[in-house]
Amino acid sequence: MPQVPTHNFGATYQEGIVSQVDAKRHKIKATIPALEDFETAWLTYLAPNAGGNQFYCLPDVGELVAILLDALGEGGCVLGTIYNNQDPAPASSNDIWLKKFSNGTTIEHDRKTGNITIHAAGKVIINDSNIDINNGTVTVSGGDVIADGISLKNHVHGGVMGGPSDTGKPK
């Protein structure tokens, strides 16, 4: 006589709406409209990388997500978010990798042209002990360049003399 399985390994695919987010544990709860707005237990939100190379991002409350639930609906994981009429895809090209934030900031890479475009809602801050910019022209438009507190547009030179002499350092 065959042995009766002690575990139910069945799973079900569902689509749900994020109802709660636990950022510390990287988990979410969702309500599932197809199951009379059943609210799931805390479910792990899958990430593309979680080892040495990491990617951290969680959905917002109200986002549509794809869920894989166990047969009893007690456990499972969130596979990712789903574009829809309320939250349409921000690009429509296979060549575009785009990260768009709710504050309007975007980071885009076009693999066809090689261009990287950043639109920031705030400042762009780069911290490192040394920053090198190589190979090409640097163009700055729309404002002043300030290096070590010295304005490129408004600095003055001391020691100005006629003839072949050099000016003093900018102030």
UniProtKB/TrEMBL annotation:
One matching Pfam family: Apex
Signal peptide residue numbers: none
Spans through the membrane: none
Domain Gp5/Type VI secretion system Vgr protein OB-fold: 15-70
Domain of life: Bacteria
Name used for this protein in its record: Phage baseplate protein
Species, as recorded: Gallibacterium salpingitidis
